[in-house]
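cron nightly-structures :: item 1 of 1
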Amino acid sequence: MNDRETRRLRRHRRIRKKVAGTPERPRLCVRRSLVHIYAQLVDDLGSRTVVSASTLSPELRQACGSANKTAAASLVGQEVARRAIAAGIQQVTFDRGGCRYHGRVRALAEAARKGGLTF
């Protein structure tokens, strides 16, 4: 593992000490790769994923194919917010996964807020 990934994992562990998801307020976990972005709502007490969306989702694959990565991240944020509202979830705890809060992570978070989720 390279030094950059090691530092990200160290930051992620430090964040996870403080951030936990409950059934009433699940954790919005963001994972970013070079091409795709993934978001899921996790109930840590029940150890289950409540809602998930990514650029690989069948509903978003067409729309994200022609968009740049930041625009695709905002589409994923809107979709995860829509699915969460449909599941009856309004409040979430944001887990940026050790990544800096800018760029694609920020676009996803702001789109989820516009979609109706409160952090």
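cron nightly-structures :: done
The chain has a mean pLDDT of 94.
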